């Protein structure tokens, strides 16, 4: 993955020759937003024979889609148990199966033939900040048995053999999950969509939308576009024409840092080669470029320059892996994602011919790919599986108040995770000390029992002395018997 952070790919170089929409155009489908979701829709719809136009206000992958770690695994941000509680077991199974299809869509695209330098590799490890072995067993049973997902439980010793830190306890290993160069993937996706026949227009913001009638009208600064279907895939950046939809998303910024080369000592401390994430959503990291560590910073609901988070990334690395010392952060990047109130993505038809694919914050690359396949097939094939997302309605995210609350919840969540982790490590140390104390006591007992043990002598009571005058007058045959000898039991004479 050496090209990932040191050179500009051919697709990125294409930014200098961006195509703007400067003429009126008709299309079957107009996709607004050239991120992961929008490009996945464009690619799948073009493959199925539709004419597709993608309108992007800036450039391909300019925000979070072009600045992510590239981890691909099944599932959603909403925990599986809560998903079952919300919509029932059978519908949860169907949604989970769709999330797996999304992951396979990425896998099929992310080949060296389609995307040179994509550097796909297998294996994702989810680790726990607390000692939760009992919950691990039930979760594995559910994943393997009920949801047909290959997952393997790792005990504490195995986790710590792969990651030299006492911060993590048990883990769940997903052998079929994988990671790719996230930057290359989004630009490779655009190249594949173009080859399939989709037309992508950058620097083309949407000024207004008229979604009435059979043919919808989209106005841009320099041209108009008509389409039978419009797909809103612009996340929190849809702008004034669709502000009400944007306000159903809580904007959350997350940044990542990449260290300078750390040499062989990195592999001694981080022996796991895939992505690592913790169950509380605090840590997410992996090795890139052979000996550099890419690490995500905590989330924030306010925008800032990525360089400001270099210090927090450095401190977090030092907290988890103090053996690495004071690492140097040589690059930072990141962007904003839209988080929904209910924790599930927004996928479906708002009204006839108007579709939404959004709310992918914390969801993973599989969900945007899943949305692309589902919406394209819904439009062109009549696939109605998007209705499985109907229980997750568009809910106002609270505006500025919601952002403040989201920031406080994030801080509280990280503090709670840190407190729970500290308590778990304290209990672990206490158990270790108890075992050591018991071992020392057992050793002392064994040492005391190495020679023969002397039993205390048996002492018999002496008979009461007979008065002299009584002895003199004792009858025949009743003379005082001689005092028996006291034996020393247990000792050979």
From TrEMBL:
Organism encoding this protein: Bradyrhizobium sacchari
Region (Disordered): 434-493
Single GO cellular component term: cytoplasm
Biased composition (Pro residues): 454-466
Highest rank taxon of the organism: Bacteria
Biased composition regions of type Basic and acidic residues, renumbered to the chain: 434-443
UniProt key word Calcium: no
PANTHER family: FAD DEPENDENT OXIDOREDUCTASE DOMAIN-CONTAINING PROTEIN, SARCOSINE DEHYDROGENASE-RELATED
Database matches in InterPro entries: FAD-dep_OxRdtase, FAD/NAD-bd_sf
Biased segments, Low complexity type: 444-453
Single annotated GO MF: oxidoreductase activity
Protein name, entry field: Glycine/D-amino acid oxidase-like deaminating enzyme
Keyword vocabulary terms for this entry: Oxidoreductase
All copies of domain FAD dependent oxidoreductase, residue ranges: 28-377
Database matches in Pfam families: DAO
